[in-house]
Amino acid sequence: MSGPVLTLSGGVGGAKLVLGLSKILDGDDLVVACNTGDDFDHFGLRICPDIDSVLYALSGLSDQQRGWGRRDETWTFMSAIQDLKGPDWFNLGDGDLATHVLRNEFLRQGQSLNAVTADLATRLGITVNVCPMTDDPVATVVQTPAGDLAFQHYFVREQCQPCVTGFRFDGIARARPNGRVIAALRSEPKAIIIAPSNPYVSVDPLLHIPGMLDAIKGANAPIVAVSPIVGGQAIKGPAAKMMAELGNDVSVLGIAQHYRDILDGLVIDLQDAHLAAEIEAMGMRVHVAQTLMTDLETRVALAQATLDFASEIAQ
Predict the structure, then answer these.
(1) Residue 220 is part of which domain span?
(2) Which end of the chain is more exposed for a tag (fewer CB within 10 A), N or C?
(3) Residue 163: inside a domain
(4) CATH number at residue 127
């Protein structure tokens, strides 16, 4: 196989693995398909949280302490919004705001989200291919007993507190997969990696775009996921809470069950090694590794272990 490695990624957790992969794979050897179901309009600007998490991670701009946004951020804009008693539930740092203003201006000029993302990546010195999953609008909706919530209202405004009963991806039936991603899948990719992102709201939107899942399955490449659940807990975000509320096993077994129809292999943490045999019984191979990514060294080590695992499966 001579094609690139294609990685499906959400935001913060996925961006960590993508950064590790970028230290091993150069330029066109890495294509990252980013979830855009989290995207929304705020103050008249198009906000793309998962794309930006990946861009900031790859450019060295991500805030390692907060876990999201840009490092060395300032908050003059939000302070002024608060002074004016405006909606302040979604924080936009001054540096982050510049990204959104530029994106909105380019979109207003008629450029596609794919073109705008590639332009921003170039401006940030990024050489690997960062691609939105689609240029078409898709909006993740979280279903709760009290009614439907737009994803950012659930995630940020309501702090993930409402009970989850399901999800809907508005616009998904009309969405067309990113052409660069499909081209990667048709070019004999070395591997397809599902980053340790939330399976329901970060990865499922990617897989539900018409034609995407068939293209992934037809790529004749090893499909490997890194579990976002370690020791029965999510490293970051509401994945474990969602799994429990949906009645699913909150463990790597639940992750394996969710992806069992597409995965060739699953990377699990050392803490979950005792569950390897049960996962293998589902028909996929398992690799046990240190999956907690606490610094650049551990990001690169996990990326290399995942690539090596995919190569073993391909043999």
Answers:
(1) 5-144+169-314
(2) C
(3) no
(4) 3.40.50.10680
